[in-house]
Every structure is written in C-alpha cells, then in structure tokens.
Amino acid sequence: MRSSAARRVRLLLCAIPLLAAALLLGAAPASAHAALLGSDPKKDSVVDTAPERVTLTFSEDVGLSKGSLKVLDPDGRRADSGEERGLGQDRYAVGLHAGLGDGTYTVTYQVVSADSHPVAGAFTFSIGAPSKTKVALAETTAGGGPVGTLYGIARYISYAGFVLLAGAGAFLLACWQGGAAVRPLQRLVVGGWLTLTAGTLLQLLLRGAYTTTGAFGDVLDLSLMGEVLQTKSGAALVSRLLLLATAALFIAVLFGAFVRRGEEGQADARKDLAFGLTGGGAIVAAGIASTWAMAEHASTGIQTGIAMPVDVLHLLAVATWLGGLAALLTALYTAPELPASAVRRFSPIAFGSVVVLVATGTYQSWRQVGTWSALTGTDYGRLLLVKIALVALLLGAAWFSRRWTGRLTSASAATAGTDGADGSVKGAEESAALAEEAPRTDDSGADGPGTAADRTEAVGRTEDADRTDSPDPAEAVGRTDSTDPAEAAGPAVAVAPERAAQLARQRRAVAVARSKRVRDADPHRARLRRSVLVEAGVAVVLLAVATALSATEPARTAEQSAAAGETGGGPTDGQPLSVTLPYDTGGKDGRGQVQLELDPGRTGGNELHAYARTSDGGPADLPELKLAFTLKAKDLGPLAVTPERVVAGHWTAEGVQLPVAGDWRVAVTVRTSDIDQITVYKTMKIG
User: Which residue ranges form the domains of the chain, and what is each CATH number?
Assistant: First the structure.
C-alpha cells in the first residue's frame, strides 16, 4: 500500500517538468507583450528626403539599452547615430546621419516591454525610391531559441517553488503545527525553497541573453549581467533572492526551535513563536509575490495602482490553496497520523483562498482581455478559457474533498476515547514505545541466568517465531499487544547488543506498519486521499497553464497590435495613414506589394499616394492600377479612384473624398500584363 501510494505521488511530481516543457515550448513565441503601433517614417513607405530621425511608437513603455534601435543602409552599414532616447507617450527615437543617399533602409528594434518580456522586430522604408538591400537579419531573436525555453522553464519552477514554500508553510502553521516535526513535510517546504531559489538564480543568469541576442554564448557575459541589474526585472529578481535568504531563517526556526518547544512541552513559548512565524512569514511571502507583480503584467497597462496589489493577493491565494493541497496530500500518504482537526482547519482556509482567487482573477481577466471577442480571438483569451475550465474542474474535486473531510471529522469524533484494543492509534503508539525497549544485556558481559546454549536456543526460538509466526506485521503487533514485555524478550535472557538493536528495529517497523494499517483502513481517509490526489493532479496542469498565460501577449495588446497592422493604426503626429497590400497575379513578375498613403487620413479631402514594388524591392511599372473605397456600415461606395502615374512604381490622386468616419474597405486592382490581374483588399480606419 505504501509503495503504491508513494509511486503515485512521485509520478505526480515528475509530471511537473514535463507539463512545463510541453506548454512553455508552445508559448515561447508569443512572449512579446509590447506591440509596435507605428513609426515615422512608416513601414514600407517611400520618402522624398532623408529624415533626421526614426521614431517608433509602442503600445506601452519599453526599456532601451545601447543598440536597441538600429538603422542600416542598403549595404548593411549603420546609418544611425547610436543615440536612442524616449520622447514620451511610449515613443522612442534614434537619430540618423546627415546626407543619407537614396535606397531602402532597414530599421531593427530590440527592447524590453514594461512587463519584462523582450520585443524584437524589423521593417524597411525607402528614401527617394526602393532599392535592393544586403541586410540579413539574425536568425536567433530575443526571447526565443533554447535560451528562451530554459528561461520559461525557470519561470515555471519559480512559480511552483513559491507555491510549495508559502502554501506548505502556511498549512503547518495554521492547520497542523505538529506536522512541523514530520520529515516528509519538512522536505516539501525545503524543496519549495530550493526550487524557487534555483529558478530565480537561473532567470537572473539567463536574463541578459534572453532579452538581447538569445545566444547561449552571452549567458556569462558580465556586461549584460550589469545591464540586467539596472533594470526593473533585475531588481525584482535580486529582491526575491534577498527575501529568500530571510525565508531560510524562518524555515530554520520552524523546523528547529519551534519543533523543540513542542517536544519539551513549552506551550506558551511555542504559541508566541508560532505567532511570530505566522506574521513574519506572511510579510515575507507577500514580498516575494510582489517581485512578480512589480515586473510583469500587473505593472503595465491600465490601473496599475490597483492591479499590482490585486496580483499579490492572487498569487498568495494560489499558493495557500495549491501549496496547502500539496502538504495535505503529502501528509495523507506519508505521515503516520494526520489529525482530522488539521483537515477540518484547512477546509475553510482553502475555501477563502478560492473566493479571493476568483475575485482577483475576474478583475485580472477583465483588465487583460477587455472584450468578448478577444476571449476567443486571441491566444491569451483561449488560454484563459482553458484556465477557467481547469479551475472549475479543481473546484469539483475540492467539493468531494470537503465531503470526505466532513465524514472523516465525524468518524474521528465518534471513535474518540477508544483504547488500543480496537485498532486505534493509541495501540500503535504503545507498540512503538515497546519497540524502543531494547532487550536487556549484562553490563559486565558475563553470562546471565542459564547457559550459553540456553541463550542461543532462546534466540533461535525468537528468530523462528519472527519468521514463522508473524508473516503479517499487523498480526505480530496484535500478539505484542497481548504479551508481557518481559516474555517478549525471553525469560531473563541476555542478548548481544547487535541482536538487541536488530530486534528493536523489527519491533519499531511492526509498530509503524500497524499504525499505518489502522490509518489506511479508514474508508473516509482513503477516499479523501484519492480526491486530494485528483486535486493535486489538476493543480499541476493549472499551474503550467497559468505560467504559459503569463508568457503570452495580453489580449488587449494583441487586438491593438492587430488593428494597427490591418488598418495602419490611424494617422499619428500629422503623418499620413498608410497600409500595405501584397499581390500575386499569377503571371510573370506578378508578385509584389502596393503601399497606400492617405494624407491626412481623415474625413473630407485626402491626397493619395500609391507605391508599387516588385518581390525584390524594386519599383513595379504596372500597366494599370485602380482603387475603390467602400463603407459597408453606411452603405457608401464603392467610390472609384483612378490615380495618375508619376514615375515607375508611383501613382498619386488628389481630392479623394471620404465623407464619413469609419472602417473603409479599399479595393486595389493591380494588372501586371494584358491578361494577369488581381484585386486585393484592406481596411483603413478613417477618423
């Protein structure tokens, strides 16, 4: 029974890294939480004269470092001054060298979003006319590759370690203080501390490479480590390590002085120590939770002043519930005796944690999702639905656990006061006490009563009795309970010290086996173990999904980024509204793209510019280019526009009237030969 139970628990613990790897590998590519909303010059635009700087607009505040923004000329040489600066309102710029020539320029950016995730990308613009470029972007990007995968795993084990450390510690102090002396529970808490510390150190070590090159060779780059320590995320990781050092002192007191006070019967001193450990431990746990809140999703977006405290409460509720569940599972399967009162105390604590979890989770979901469409139309929303389903499943399993908890408590109350003859734990304790008594030996080593042959024969009879009369440990203990200790040891027979120690170990094992058999014979406790095991299994998956969720672009940002990509993001800072439409007519030289610019991109009259380029970036000399605008919401259009050709690849039209604001659908008809033609569509948001 014991080996089977331990095997199930070990399998459950082994499932943690496997689930983490499976989910995090799928979630890693979506780790960028800030989106590029616009730029000046626009992406794929053609400007007549060289600008003085390149400006990027993001969806949230980002962190810059040396080389975060680069501009490369057609030959791949640096065309920027290397001086990045923030302009406010999530806008950042880098200056350009004077006297830049015509051609296609590549802009690369590699920044860190406000919630600690790396953001990288590139786009092009042209001066005068498009040209071929020799720029080849690196295949390894920030936040991806093996470094990104390892960083994601480190994040997961950090969450798991915090849950075990805080939750199991809370269980011992609030539900079962006597469990502080149980070795498996001690190992659970210490294992949580070690896991969280190892995960935090690994994150700190990988952070520099994770947010820059993504290359393993840069993991030990001290200059990158220095830059990390100056960032918000680096400060959060260092703060977490300092708090973990404090937590180590609390653990030492809990399993040292606190346990000794209980063994020595110092109830008042133990009570005072429990009060200090509970209050101080809660403060340290809240501090560790705040290291996530100050550096991740809660620290950016709307209502950050509310979101960060709510995130701390959310993490503490998760740890109290799931970590307490892990401690309860460990105690049910490994502790010789788990009082029903401990289970009874944990039940309302778990219920309160669930209430806090649901309330804070609802607020966080609204804040990160925002719309019903984002709930099903984004990766974040779909993962959130999976998390909600798992929470519902976990609550169902918890309902069964509460049911068996009530029956276990009732059964314990009904059997209180019974003696050892009916199989209670008292009998097991008496057997254990008996087992501690070693057979007597003569201090002088001389022969006691009887000859050596008599003693040898007596020992032989004892060994035979152990082998033949006690095949079942419980039966052996049953006879021990009804046998006088002196008779069990043999009539005044002195035994060698080695043999005495062996007999003591055998009797101790028999006593423990009987105690566990009595424990496992309780049907209510067995059902509670099974339901808690199901809860723990679901909790492992839930924790993995929650970690993947924290590494996924929030739904609000994803929708905002998608809108900017589809509609051009609307005109900003007086710049024209711009969209790009790829086309493929299917004929020779039939692939390319058309960039449309509407200036000012608002209701009324607009100036239209259309730039057509071939697949290799050169100007496309199209035989014909036509446009039409339609606003389906108002049943307007199609409003046909026939631009005039200026030069090869460039058309223009003045006085393009768009009378009503809304999402206008533009249809661009491209003809590349007498018979090859296609119409492509895009939406432009007119304000």
Answer: 1-30+372-408+517-568 (no CATH), 36-127 (2.60.40.1220), 140-260+270-369 (no CATH), 570-686 (2.60.40.1930)
